[in-house]
Design brief:
The complex is a heterodimer of chains A (about 55) and B (about 350). Chain A has no helices and 3 strands. By secondary structure, chain A is an all-beta fold. Chain A has one domain: Single Sheet (Rubrerythrin, domain 2). In chain B, strand 1, helix 1 and strand 2 form a beta-alpha-beta unit. The chains are: A mainly beta (about 55), B alpha/beta (about 350). At the A-B interface, loops of A face helix 8 of B.
């Protein structure tokens, strides 16, 4: 099972993952992009900031 | 079935104990005491229990005469009064689980500083195990006397202790605690009038709160706590501002939490990068025995905000006491505590 590049938590993947698919880390909820499948490598996907305080 | 009595059962903590224990598959509630409601049905002050029990409140003065009806005493009785009656309670039951503040602090001088009166039974303090299974499970398994921590202390200790144990934080911890109105208890008073309480964010303990002593006792760190009453019935959230030691980064902090709580049934690490509930939020924990802990690190200032949240009446009191009972009897810890909370609520 690959690890999240953000928090090092284990990331569960579906069978036969594909490059460019987006998955979510169960521990820190970061969206991750599958950048290679053999071996599986994950990178943090770009995110939009939220702000409730304005 | 284990037979239990709840002393001080008409208050909010007592009512929550009844709710959880009446639903517990290995427990029978045989006695519930209240001086104010003696002789009346327990589902009067606790209407959520209608249809679950025909129990009536027993006058606490008759607790000794009823001693052959229970094996375990749960004490939901006031601080300062409980210590005076503890020798009697200990003579009545095989096991005593105390939810008052009287046997939480190991040092009677610290107790006096925070409760304003000398401890009247200091010789009994060492006999009590600290009722926080996450950090005292072995002690609880072998103890017939258990003292359950305070609600804000539980949230603070569960949030901070993995980091203090791992040497990731140092210096004074600033704790900003927010609490719902049920933490003030069931007694009427002008401070609890709806007209006064509704909409208020009342800082009722600006520079010190007695629960800070419990956090210091558990973490070894100096703590300064502010406590504020907020617009909620249930719920506690503690915001702890800490200084990080060299090398303490997000990965090290996550690792410390993972190592401390990976196998814990009631502590979840909530420090997410996305979503509405990125950090621990008591709103979704109402009625559940979970304590959520989380953090956010500011690399520039080498500080972190560490957060703990729970339902003050459940993991902050009654649920934690039931979890201790489960640990003490070698039962699965989730027994009677499976409720996950509500969303939305």
């Amino acid at each position: 099972m690959p690890n999240c590049p953000g928090c090092e938590g284990s990331v569960a993947l579906e069978e036969n993952p594909r490059v460019n698919e987006i998955v979510e880390c169960g521990e820190c909820a970061t969206e991750l992009e599958i950048i290679s499948v053999d071996p599986v490598e994950l990178a943090i996907a770009p995110e939009v900031e939220e702000d409730w305080g304005e | 079935m284990l037979r239990v009595a709840v002393v001080g059962a008409s208050g909010y903590i007592g009512g929550e104990l009844l709710r959880l224990l009446l639903g517990h598959p290995r427990v029978t509630v045989t006695v519930a005491t209240s001086s104010r409601h003696a002789g009346k049905r327990v589902d009067g002050p606790h209407p959520n229990l209608r249809g679950t029990t025909d129990l009536t409140f027993l006058d606490p003065g008759r607790l000794a005469a009823a001693k052959d009806q229970y094996d375990v005493l749960f004490l939901a009785t006031p601080h300062k009064e409980t210590m005076g009656r503890m020798p009697e309670y200990l003579s009545l039951a095989d096991q005593v689980i105390d939810l008052s503040g009287d046997f939480r602090l190991r040092d009677p001088r610290v107790y006096e500083r925070h409760y304003g009166v000398p401890h009247t039974a200091p010789e009994l303090i060492p006999g009590f195990a600290t009722g926080l299974p996450e950090w005292h499970r072995k002690e609880i398994r072998g103890s017939d006397r258990i003292s359950v921590p305070g609600c804000m202390a539980t949230a603070g200790v569960l949030a901070l202790r993995p980091l203090s144990e791992a040497g990731l934080i140092h210096g004074e911890v600033q704790v900003d605690a927010r609490t719902g109105s049920s933490g003030s208890g069931v007694s009427a008073g002008s401070a609890n009038l709806h007209a006064e309480r509704s909409g208020a964010m009342r800082i009722f303990a600006p520079n010190s709160h007695r629960h800070q002593a419990e956090i210091t006792q558990a973490t070894g760190l100096p703590v300064r706590m502010t406590a504020t009453g907020v617009e909620a019935v249930r719920g506690v959230q503690v915001l702890c501002r800490v200084s990080l030691t060299d090398g303490a980064d997000e990965r090290a902090v996550r690792r410390a939490y993972r190592e401390a709580y990976a196998d814990e049934p009631f502590v979840r690490v909530v420090a997410q990068k996305r979503g509405l509930y990125r950090l621990p939020e008591p709103k979704i924990l109402s009625g559940s025995n979970y304590c959520d802990v989380g953090f956010d690190i500011d690399e520039e200032s080498r500080t972190a905000l560490v957060v703990g949240a729970l339902d003050n009446l459940v993991k902050g009191g009654s649920g934690n006491a039931v979890q201790c009972l489960n640990v003490r009897h070698g039962w699965p810890e989730r027994l009677g505590l499976e409720f996950t909370g509500l969303h939305p609520n």
